[in-house]
């Protein structure tokens, strides 16, 4: 999937709603939650194909992409310090990475180390979602568990939003199932899938809209958190 597809997914994209809501949440965080002056440094730890690079650079921020291999700007070696100095970043970001990391103390510790004093950490990860190894998939969180996990690494959650609640998620899972089944049928499968994905994406959008906010937050498929780096975390 191209970075542009992740930022602006179309109606025929089987993952439209999760991708769209995450992009909107990241944009809200940049516009309303975080005050970064032009020239501020953003370090993306586990950048993948850097789908949100343009969002940061459009605000005059310096974006540093870090991952396990090229074309990242900085190469990460698991269980070793990321080759950037302490306090390098005004903002450290991590999008859909944490569930793929086994060494949580190392990963979150490095994210904490890279923050400047008064720096911020913006992270998204899965609550309820399907197994998706890239290359491995290790865990899911409740919102209370995620807050506690971050807190134990000295990262205090100040803002948190959940997206794709249980009504939309059940339809989303069925849509992924249809894609897997029909994708095995040459030519005809793609023809049959087109009206299915459109109709189910419309249903997902409606179900997400009518889901009560409390139910959506408690049973979200994805959480986005903004954290302050503190020496002593307040664990609920």
Secondary structure category: alpha/beta
CATH class placement:
Alpha Beta
Percent of residues in helices comes to: 25-40%
Query: What is the terminal-to-terminal distance?
Result: 38 Å
| CA-based gyration radius | 18 Å
Q: What's the CATH topology name?
A: Rossmann fold
Q: How is the biggest beta sheet arranged? A: 7 strands, mixed
Instruction: Using the 3D structure, state the CATH architecture.
Output: 3-Layer(aba) Sandwich
Q: What series of H and E elements makes up the topology?
A: HHEHEEEHEHEHHHE
Total helical segments: 8
**Form type:** globular
Based on DSSP secondary structure assignment, what is the total number of beta strands? 7
Q: What percentage of amino acids are in beta strands?
A: 15-25%
Low confidence ranges: 231-236
- How do the strands line up in the largest sheet? 3-2-1-4-5-7-6
Number of domains: 1
The CATH superfamily is identified as Vaccinia Virus protein VP39
Query: Overall mean pLDDT score?
Result: 94
How would you sum up this structure, described in words?
This protein has about 240 residues and is an alpha/beta fold. It starts with a helix and ends in a 7-residue tail after the last strand. The chain has a single domain (about 5-230), classed as 3-Layer(aba) Sandwich (Rossmann fold), CATH 3.40.50. Helix 6 runs antiparallel to helix 7. Strand 4 (about 90-95), helix 4 and strand 5 (about 115-125) form a beta-alpha-beta unit. The longest helix has 23 residues, at about 190-210. The protein contains 8 helices and 7 strands; from the N terminus they run ααβαβββαβαβαααβ.
